[in-house]
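FYI - complex with uridine-diphosphate-N-acetylglucosamine, inputs then prediction.
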Amino acid sequence: MPRIIVENSSPLRGTVRISGAKNAVLPIIAASLLSNDKCILDDVPMLDDVEVMCEVLVSLGADIKRISSGRIEVNSRDIDNYEAPYELVRRMRASFLVIGPMLARMGEARISLPGGCAIGTRPIDLHLKGFSAMGAEINFGHGYIEARADRLRGERIYLDFPSVGATENIMMAAALADGRTVIENAAEEPEIVDLANFINKMGGNVKGAGTDTIKIEGVDELTGANHTVIPDRIEAGTYMVAGAITNGDIIVENIVTNHLMPVIAKLREAGVFVEEVPSGLRVYAPERVNSIDIKTLPYPGFPTDMQAQMMALTSVAQGTSVFIETVFDNRFMHVNELRRMGANIKIDGRSAVIQGVPKLTGARVKATDLRAGAALILAGLVADGITEINETHHIDRGYIDIEKKFQNLGAKVYRI
Ligand code: UD1
């Protein structure tokens, strides 16, 4: 099995270009199912998760061409299958995002119940409640969900929790529904705005994305569109923490500063300098950062996808930090691995208390999920000795060229 080896690499210096956002491109590829025409997508990170989403579309009958690095063409004209199989959906939970567009375009979808990162129970009840409210008939059996509707009808839908996936799935379904759908308590993440922009480029009518009320006026058909995916704010945040933890001085390029405000605010509170420069953000840090408290929340709150990386940073901060994870119910699996590297962290339910230590030590550890894996690389950058990270496939789900990008910053990060 491949492993990632990390050696102490302080301080990092140089520039890193951030790729297109995984969590934006996945729903956008799914939304290409809404049209009979070709869609051209740019700045597509060819990550494992993106490959899986492409395979799901191909299994439904779509034709996907990789035109050049970062550019793909999706043609969903010849969709002839309603079923997304277990073998693909189990590899990535976000495959479930095809159900909304399939239902809207084909009137039918059959999808295996999703798998994905093992970060707590991740139900899909909000997606299904939305489709039911719009007139779909939903049935379960043999590990599959079947949804049917001659034509979905617009409805007012209140989400109990501002779920990113449910907001996206309902928004895509509503784009071709009969009449107006209003999603209340909608997720406000930048990736939702990117999806809405894409649907509008296809001729859709989505208003209010980025606020908690999204209004979608259904149209009879959507056309093809060209779209460049927004930069990945979580990849950017991860490299910013790398600059901070190594007492480094780096520039992250191709970012949207506004999307990073929750992360920038916490880094600054920790004593890290974050400055806007013409090409992006410069991040430089004192030798040892200060402790900070973090509570994860839906956007614009602090992102749960940056919690593990910030925990690596506070593991070596001066003082005690308290983290509260409110979005997922089992997202502290990195704690055991960080402890193996000498971190002093206690967990009580959804809270973690991190007593900063002056030094971590390299160890054999495993990536338990995508962001946990990133946190271990960050810890390895400042640990004495060698850190060997196993189960690296989790990391490849969300970080493109990770060793190369770290090496360009002067880090000793290799894959063996
Ligand atoms: C998306 C992101 C993921 C991020 C998460 C929260 C993608 C591909 N993934 O995941 O990286 O960590 O947002 O920012 O964009 N929930 C329900 N019922 C539902 C749906 C969700 O109870 O029907 C709960 C989940 O169990 C979880 C919370 O809502 O506790 C947040 O989930 P959600 O916002 O849906 O996350 P994802 O879309 O799966």
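The radius of gyration is 21 Å. Residues 23, 26, 93-94, 121-127, 161, 163-166, 187, 191, 304-305, 327-328 surround uridine-diphosphate-N-acetylglucosamine (CB under 6 Å).
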